[in-house]
Amino acid sequence: MIQAGIVGGAGYTAGELIRILLNHPGVNINFIYSTSQAGKPVAHIHQDLLGETNLEFSDKINKDADVVFLCLGHGNSIKFLEEHSFSETTKIIDLSTDFRIKAEDNSFKYGLPEMNREEIKNARFIANPGCFATAISLAILPLAGAGLLEDEVHINAVTGSTGAGTSLSETTHFSWRDNNFSAYKAFEHQHLAEITQSVNQLQKSFTSALNFIPNRGNFSRGIHCTAYTVFSGSLEEASALYNYYYKGAAFTFVVEKDLHLKQVVNTNKCLVRLQKFGNKLLITTILDNLLKGASGQAVQNMNLMFGLNETEGLKLKANYF
Question: Which reaction does it catalyse (predicted)?
Answer without folding.
Answer: N-acetyl-L-glutamate 5-semialdehyde + phosphate + NADP(+) = N-acetyl-L-glutamyl 5-phosphate + NADPH + H(+)
